[in-house]
Amino acid sequence: MDKKIIFSVALLVLLLSVTILGISGVKASLILVLIFFIPLALLLSKLNFLSEESIILGIFVSLGVIPTVIYYPGLIFSLRVLTIITVLILLSAPFVLSKANFFSDKK
Amino acid sequence: MDKKVEYGILALIWATTFYLYLLPVSDLPFGDVDASTHFSIADTMFTNDQSIYWLPYQINATYGFASGGKIWYPPHYHLDASLIQLFSNERIIGFFFFTAFTSSLIVLSMFLFARHLYGFLTATVATLLAAFSARDILVYFFSQWPQAISFFYVPAFLYVLYRALHEYENRKKYSIIAALILASQFFFHPQGFITSGLIGIIYIAIISFKEKKLPFSLKESVIPISLLIILILLFIQFPLSAGEKKQEAASFARLFSWYADYSKYSGEYPQSYFSYSYSHGIWTLPFLVLGLIYILYRRKNQDIMMLSILIGYYIITHLDVIGYPGRVPRFYQLESLVFYPLIAIGAILTIPSFFKQYKEKTKVASFFIILILILFFNAPQAYSSLKNAQPLPYRITHEQLELAEWLNNNVPEKGEIGYIGTTSLSKIKWLRQLSQRFVKRQETSDTIPNFIIIDGSDLGYLNAQNELQQLKQIEQSFNLTPIYNKNNIKVYKIG
User: Fold this and answer.
1) Residue B167 carries which DSSP code?
2) What pLDDT was estimated at residue A2?
3) Which of B89, B105, B112 lies nearest to residue A52, judging by beta carbons?
4) B-chain residues near A47 (CB < 8 A)
5) Arithmetic mean of pLDDT, B187-209
6) Cβ separation of B153 and A60 shorter than 8 Å?
7) Mind listing the pLDDT tens digit for each residue in A78-106?
8) Contact between residue B309 and residue B320 where contact means Cβ atoms under 8 Å apart
9) φ and ψ at B237, to 5 degrees?
C-alpha cells in the first residue's frame, strides 16, 4: 500500500510538470522525485511511519539532510557524483536494515 | 473516511497549489528583491558542479564583500535548487521549478498537523486556505524563498513534537525526526528555527504545568538534542555573521496592536501585506473568533498547542517593543499557521457544536459552505496574482538573456559594466546574476566602468519614444563602435 501511494504521488508530480512546463518540467520533476522524494519516503515507510508521514516528512527531511551530507565534500568533489552516491545509499538503506533485522518487532 | 479518499483529496489540493505556483515559471526568470541573488548562489554551484563557500565576485562587488565574502546563510536551499538544475540541465526552469515546489509545501505540512489534531475536514479547510494564501503569494513574489520554506517546516515540526510527547511507544522515532526537521529549519533560515523552538518551549511549559511533570524523559532526549546540536554546529559559521542591531523600542501601545505601524516599513512592503482583509479575506474573521473561543473553552492538548502557536506568534511579531523592528513583518508569513486551523475549527467544530442533534450533518454543511467561500473569494485572487506575475518587459526578456550569455563569454570575470536604459533596478540585478558579471546602474555611479550597455529594448517594448531619443543622444556622445549590437541593445568597451 505505501509503495503504491509513493509511486502514485511521484506520477502526479510528473504529470503536473509536463502539463505546464513540457519536457523541461519532466526533467526537473524526475530529478525532484528521484532525489528528494522516493529515497526517504521508502526508508521512512520501512521504519513504520504512516504513509502520509513517509511522504510528507520524507520530503522535508530530504531537503535538509541531503545538502547537509554533500555540501562539504562538494567543495572538492563533483556534486553530481556525491548526490548519486547519497541517493544510492538511502535507497539501499531499507534492504540493509532488513537484512540486519532492524525492522523486526522486539518483545 | 477511507484513507485512499483522504490521500486523493490532499493530492488534489497539493497539485492545485503546485500548479498555481508554477504559473509564473517560464524560461525567463522572475522575482524581485533577493530573487537574483538566490538564483546566483545556486547557479554558481550548477555552473561549477561544486559547492561554494565564497560568494561569486558579482555579488561581493555589489555588497562590498560583507561577511568577509563568504555565503551569508547555510547553503541548503541553494544547493537543493542547484541539484535540480544540475541533473535536469535546466538552468532557469530547474531553479524556478524548485522554488514553486517548495512554495507548495505549506499545504502538506499544514494537512499533516491539522489532520492529526482536529480531523480530516478541519485539515482540509485549513489546507485549502493555505493553498490560496495571498500573503504567501506575496512572499513568493518578494522572493523570500528560504525563509518561506523554513516557516513551512513549523507545522511539520509541531506535528512530530506533539506525537513524540504524547505517544510513548513512538517517542524515539518522532524525536529523531523532530531534531532533523528543526536542524533543516535552521539551515534554510533561522527565523523558522526560532519560531519552532519558541512554540515548542511554550507548549512544553504549559503541558508541564498542567500535568505537574515534564512530558518527556530528559535521559531519552539526549540523543535527539545531541543530533540537533551536531548538525547545527556543522553550519553555525554562516548565520553568525548576520543579525540585527538593537534600535529604539516601539511604545507600550504597540502591545495592543496586532500589526506594526506600516509607515515604518512602507519602503519595503506594500500596504496589502499588513492587511488582514487582503491576506485572508474579511469573511474569515467570524470563523476565526469562533475557533479561538473553541480552543479557549476546551483546552485539551490540541487546543493548548494552538494557543502556544498564538502566543509564540504574538511574541515574535512584537519584537519591536524591545527594539528589534527589522524582522517583524517577515514573521507575518506565519499567520497562515496561526489563523487557518482556527478558522477551520470555527467552521467545522464550533458551529456544529451548537446543533448537537444534527452535529455530523452540520459539520458537512459547514464544510461545503466554507469550500464555496474559499473558491469564490480567495481562489480567484490567488490565480489572478500568479497568472499575471511580471509580464514582459518587467522581467528579463529573451533579448536581455541573450545579452547576459554574451557578457559571460566576452567580458572578464572582474570587469565592471555600467548599464543605462532599463525599466527597473531588479532587471539590472538579474542581468548581473545571469551574466555572472558585475553590472551596475551607470546613472547613479561615479566610477568609469570597463564596458557600457545601452539598452533600448525595454523602452522599445513600451514604445517610449522620448526616452529612446534620450538614449540615442547618450550613445552619440560616446563616439565609439559598439562591440555588441543586437535587438536594440549595444555594448561599448570603454576602458
Assistant:
1) -
2) 64
3) B112
4) 173
5) 95
6) yes
7) 999 999 999 999 999 888 877 765 554 44
8) no
9) -65, -25
Q: How far is CA B155 from CA A11, B181, B185, B243, B341, in A?
A: 26, 10, 12, 25, 11
pTM for the model stands at 0.93
Statement: residue B113 has pLDDT above 60:
yes
Report the DSSP pairing between strands B438-441 and B416-420.
parallel
The residue type found at B47 is T
Residue type, B112: L
Closest chain B CA to residue A84: B87
Three-state secondary structure call for residue B418: strand
Residue A105 has a pLDDT of 46
Cross-strand pairs, B490:
B454, B485
pLDDT digits (tens, 9 = 90+) for B457-487: 988 888 888 888 888 888 888 788 999 999 9
- List, edge to edge, every strand of the sheet that includes B438-441: B438-441, B416-420, B451-455, B489-493, B484-486
Q: What is the pLDDT of residues B39-48, one digit of tens each?
A: 999 999 999 9
pLDDT of residue A10 exceeding 80, the answer is no
Model pLDDT, residue B321: 86
The residue behind cell 522525485 is A33
What average pLDDT does this structure show over B230-238?
Answer: 92
Alpha-carbon gap, residue A26 to A12, rounded angstroms:
11
Q: Are strands B451-455 and B416-420 parallel, antiparallel or unpaired?
A: parallel
Where is B406: in which H helix or E strand?
Answer: helix B398-410
Q: How far is CA B41 from CA A31, A82, B493, in A?
A: 20, 19, 28
What are the φ and ψ backbone dihedral angles of B19, each rounded to 5 degrees? -60, -45
| Cis omega (within 30 of 0) for bond into B393 | yes
Distances from the Cα of B161 to the Cα of A88, B135, B141, B154, B222, angstroms: 30, 26, 31, 10, 15
Q: Is B392 exposed, middle or buried (0-12, 13-18, 19+ CB in 10 A)?
A: exposed
Among A53, A54, A69, the residue to mutate for chain B (most B Cβ within 10 A): A53
CB B36 within 8 A of CB B426: yes
The amino acid sitting at B326 is G
Q: B186 CA to chain A: closest CA distance, Å?
A: 9
pLDDT tens for B348-360 read 999 998 888 888 8
Give the β-pairing of B489-493 and B451-455: antiparallel
Q: How confident is the model at residue A107 (pLDDT cuts 50, 70, 90)?
A: very low
Chain A residues lying within 8 Å of B184, measured CB to CB: 60-61, 63-65
Q: Which three cell numbers stand for residue B248?
A: 529604539
Produce one character per residue of B5-38: b if its CB has 16 or more CB atoms within 10 Å, e if not: ebbebbbebbbbbbbbbbbbbeebbbbbebbbbb
